[in-house]
Amino acid sequence: MSVKSGRNNLPRHIAIIMDGNGRWATKRGLPRSVGHKKGVEVVEEIIKAAVKLNIEVLTLYAFSTENWLRPKKEVELLLDTLCRLLKMKLSLLMENNIKLKVMGEITRFSYSLRKTLQKAQSETEKNTGLIVNLALNYGSRNEIINAVRQIAQRVSEGLLNISDINDELFSQFLYTKDLPEPDLLIRTSGEQRLSNFMLWQLSYTELYFCPKFWPDFTQEDLKNAIEEYQKRERRFGRICVV
After folding, report:
1. Is the dihedral of CA 174, 178, 182, 187 positive or negative?
2. Is 176 part of any domain?
3. What is the pLDDT of residues 179-226, one digit of tens each?
4. Domain span at residue 69?
5. H-helix segments, the chain
6. Is-catalytic flag, 80?
7. Residue 204 in contact with residue 180, Cβ under 8 Å?
8. Is the pLDDT of residue 241 over 50?
């Protein structure tokens, strides 16, 4: 198996729903926290692989708006792990020319986590390599509703006409306004649903469902997903020309 390296064959933007940390641990008779810690290690390996493959954008669904419904201790562990990871790995981001972006409503997070996220984004802002886009306290329905509110406000202020509203304008009010739409979505753990993730942006994205839990996902699995993507014909609603 080999990934074709030509720019026309590689997905510019890969999005991943990292699912199955808790179930991975439970299946082994371990605390769910162990699964989350193992999942963090996999994140680092997949980022390294994306750098090697010259992927432009890697979006990781790290914490959803629905994740607040989990037990409080588990949520605290997840967010604390994220905060410590960013502090520890900032130098790694800089060494690899990685730019960090965050999408979601981070105002609900602790001051410490918000400060860490802001610092990581600020210090990597001028990096020109892989963009790692973390979806944190993210929900696509909220994102779309917020975009509608912003557009409605501008219409009410006379800054926009209703006739100005189209796909391109609407996209400029989303968190991903400066990013290409995902070419490939990968979801681990065997679940086959989008779970309120990038519903607008995934309109024409190729979907790839991996049966492995996220802690078992490897660089080779990423390459397999890309190879499958490269076999597909993306028509974007057009008729295939033979």
Report:
1. negative
2. no
3. 999 999 999 999 999 999 999 999 999 999 999 999 999 999 999 999
4. 13-139+182-231
5. 21-27, 32-52, 72-95, 111-124, 140-156, 167-171, 219-231
6. no
7. no
8. no
| Best CA proximity match to 230, nearest among 199, 206, 209 | 206
Strand partners, 132: 58, 100
Q: Is residue 44, in this structure, part of any structural domain at all?
A: yes
Alpha-carbon distance 101 to 165, whole Å? Answer: 26
Instruction: Give the model confidence (pLDDT) of 78-95 as tens digits.
Output: 898 888 888 888 998 999
Q: How many domains does the chain have?
A: 1
Known catalytic membership, residue 19: yes
Q: Note whether residue 56 is domain-resident.
A: yes
User: Measuring CA to CA, how many Å separate 226 from each of 9, 58, 182, 184, 210?
Assistant: 9, 13, 13, 8, 12
Q: Please identify which of the residues 8, 9, 67, 166 carries the catalytic annotation.
A: 67
Q: Which of 8, 9, 19, 142 is catalytic?
A: 19
Q: CA angle, corner 35, sides to 32 and 38, nearest 5?
A: 155
